[in-house]
Amino acid sequence: MKQAIHFGAGNIGRGFIGALFSESGYHVSFVDVAETIIDGLNAQGKYRVKLAQEKDESILVENVSGINNMKDEEAVIAKIQQATYLTTAIGPNILPRIAPLIARGIEARVTGNFATGADLEPMSELDVASDMSAGSEKLYIIACENQIGATDILKGHIMSHLSDEAKADLAGKVYFFNSAVDRIVPIQEGGSLDVLVEPYYEWVVETTEDLPEVSGMTIVDDLAPFIERKLFTVNTGHAVIAYHGYLAGKPTIDKTLADPEIEREVRETLKETGAYLVKQYGLDEKTHLAYIDKNIARFKNAYLNDGVTRVGRAPIRKLGPEDRLVRPAVQAQKAGLSYSHLAKAIAAAMLFDYAEDEEAVKIQELIAQSGPELVLKEVSGLEADSELAQEVVRQYRAMKK
Ligand SMILES: NC(=O)c1ccc[n+]([C@@H]2O[C@H](COP(=O)([O-])OP(=O)(O)OC[C@H]3O[C@@H](n4cnc5c(N)ncnc54)[C@H](O)[C@@H]3O)[C@@H](O)[C@H]2O)c1
Ligand SMILES: O=P(O)(O)OC[C@@H](O)[C@@H](O)[C@H](O)[C@H](O)CO
């Protein structure tokens, strides 16, 4: 059977990427530190992806297993040697931590070093033949994270752990492609392996190579408009709802959007990112407005029960210079476009004082030390005298009252 190895058996891993590989005839080996999930995958070998909609509908995901990378690095290395695809959905902050192990797998694959062979599953002649016809002598690596250039970033970490011999031998054998991944998958309740997901999905991969078929994967030769359109519409909109919802004491995204004031704020913010995207990528304005409407309808899906604290999670990452709030605001300012609603969203993110989120706690500590200006400088790369930083601080002080 064709092999895919996926790092991160969480919401998107099981609910989206792993499910697509399984549907495409791959055996999916999930790599994770969550013992219960890994044990469950090995015990059951299957789970269901349930659609968050009125009609009861679910998809059976089969041919799955799990490896705990804290306990069995050799099994991960062995799987990397067999895989056609290696994907991640683990969170941008974790990519540097898994890179050394991925590098060991690649090293073993391209040079033969480190290979124990002990954990390699025997493949039938038919499997070998079908793998060769699918091009499995090549390994395709795709990071599926909400981050611009996530695969390039992962590649940089992997390269720093490879020997010169392996680096020289990668061409034609190991490929790295950036991607944009879109499907809302909330935190799962109940502890089963099954995953509740929204019906909509989009997975866009940037390459000019001819890839072995994976259902649901869209290939483009330039990802920039896709990832920016996604990140600065779906994720900007989501973040605005999460941070304003949190401040208003709302539990979920759909319940927050039921407040017409907040819906108006979301639309105004997305008009700002939209004006930048339309100008930058020559998008058709009407089509983009329809894209905004479509996403607001997705956010209203009450079957998802998606918490504002999940969507607002990791505010240091979300306030980063290349992320969903600061980058479009900086770009809008540079282009002479309006950015006041984005500034308000940045201010709201700095007021996200959720005690169970380590990054939120860290931001509150920085603010307590030296005010919001320090966060904007240290986290967002904005100098205190920039117009954007001044507007954010003004909004922050107004909202804090
Ligand atoms: N959930 C969504 O709606 C959604 C949609 C699109 C993209 N994404 C992106 O997908 C990525 C994953 O998000 P998620 O919602 O699935 O998160 P998640 O927390 O559900 O899954 C992440 C998984 O990674 C595992 N993990 C953490 N550290 C690890 C380590 N060192 N080694 C191995 N496994 C480790 C965790 O145990 C967890 O199972 C993020 O980049 C996110 O932005 C999420
Ligand atoms: O995953 P994050 O923390 O980058 O962002 C939270 C949500 O906006 C995100 O997970 C969305 O649900 C997802 O990106 C939809 O495709």
TrEMBL record:
Full protein name: Mannitol-1-phosphate 5-dehydrogenase
GO annotation terms (biological process): mannitol catabolic process
GO molecular function: mannitol-1-phosphate 5-dehydrogenase activity
UniProt xrefs under HAMAP family: Mannitol_dehydrog
UniProt keyword list: NAD, Oxidoreductase
Reactions this protein catalyses: D-mannitol 1-phosphate + NAD(+) = beta-D-fructose 6-phosphate + NADH + H(+)
Name of the coding gene: mtlD
InterPro entries hit by this protein: 6-PGluconate_DH-like_C_sf (IPR008927), 6PGD_dom2 (IPR013328), Mannitol_1_phos_5_DH (IPR023028), Mannitol_DH (IPR000669), Mannitol_DH_C (IPR013118), Mannitol_DH_CS (IPR023027), Mannitol_DH_N (IPR013131), NAD(P)-bd_dom_sf (IPR036291)
